[in-house]
Amino acid sequence: MSFTVIQRFVVANILTVVYSSLVAIVIFLSSLIYQLKNIGKQKPKFVPPASLTDRKYGVHKYIKANNVKLHYVESGDPSKPLLLFLHGFPEFWYTWRHQIVEFNKDYCCVALDMRGYGDSEKPEGISSYKLDILVEDVRDFIRKLGRSKCILVSHDWGGIVASKFRDTHPEYLDGIIMFASITRESWHREIWSNLEQHFRSWYELLFYYLILELFIAV
Length: 218
What we know:
Number of strands: 6
Distance between the termini: 38 Å
Number of helices: 7
Strand content: 15-25%
CATH topology of the largest domain: Rossmann fold
């Protein structure tokens, strides 16, 4: 199966509306059922799990990079090579807790909350989350740590950021590792040439427009 650029545009737009509408209906019905089941009940108070502040995973720190306050967890000897972890969507630094414990003997492990996630600052507006800006966050973050090199370990959406970082700032890398991720170019090629992959990646189309975001906001 192959598509021209125009066909891809048309199909992507149609599927985005269809998928977003279906998911919006599911969210609405689930929310309605939840509200009906909990009428008169006091809403439970959210208490962050104690494991989030467990010092065996490292020290929680903040730093201003690319004009955004970023939160990260650091563990290991600062004089050792930097192992920088980038999480996926919708995750945060905690994704890497096991890797931090495993590798902090040989590396200075740093697990970053990218902008908009976890305890990092959450700028308003879609334009604040463009890929080039996220890449610049990583570059400036490394510099603000006083480093010139790192091994970049990434997962999912973090892998997209990492692959773009590799293309634009290879001089900062001693190595790059990507889990469950792919470059944007490879993904676009695969999703439009492989029907099975297209259906497996249907949820990606939910991010083309703000239909779900607008629905949730209302």
